[in-house]
Amino acid sequence: MKKIMLVMLGTSLLFSVSKINAQETQRTKRMQGFQQGRMERMKNGNEFGKNLNLTDEQKAKAREINKDYQSKINALKSNDKLTMGEFKKQEATLKKERNDKLFAILTPEQKEKAEKFKNNVQEGKGQKAEQMKKELNLTDEQAAKIKDINATYATKIKAIRDNSSLSKEEKKQQLSALMKERKNAVDKVLTQEQIKKRDELLKERKSKRMSKEK
User: CA separation (Å) from 149 to 138, 145, 184, 191, 210?
Assistant: First the structure.
């Protein structure tokens, strides 16, 4: 009888420990994703906000909006009962709510600047494509095919990034595989000479980045 009781107690303890570990793992994943997203938001936010010339009143309102947002995010982070998918969904809702409130305090001129900022991000992608066409001496047909390939894979990449059921590691693996597929698809459009030139340019740029980081 004592042996049975000990086995039952041991099983119960193992179950409790496993449950706690699972909760801690979920919390850790949420924290890592939150910190990474926070750093990215700070970087983009500084670039975005410095050109809007906010008044002191607007800055005060923005601080209150962000404070309220942060309070709600902290409440989400402390809720161990939420799955990663539930957390991401509620976080996205809170982000949209905050962004709508921030946009509402802007003047028409500031709203126009905010829209231009978003458009500039998209234009930057177009400029890179034009630069690639010039550097590799692509024909119009090649450029059009590569544009279609990039558009197709951009949709696939977004689907993976927005898939809250995937872990960070699973997303990393799937995105890596997708980038290889995209490279292979682009390689089929390029000539051997263009592939060689592209690889040389990428190697050169990587070398320059590493030199700057030293």
Answer: 15, 6, 10, 16, 29
Q: What's the gap between Cα 147 and its chain centre?
A: 22
Q: How many domains does the chain have?
A: 2
Provide DSSP, 35-84. Answer: HHHHHHHHHHHHHHHTTS---HHHHHHHHHHHHHHHHHHHHHHT-TT--H
Containing structural domain, residue 9 = 1-33
Is pLDDT of 41 > 50? no
pTM higher than 0.85, yes or no? no
Q: Is residue 200 part of a domain?
A: no
Pick from 160, 157, 158: nearest CA to 171:
160
Residues 28 and 66 in one domain: no
* Over residues 195-213, mean pLDDT: 84
In a domain, 179, yes or no: no
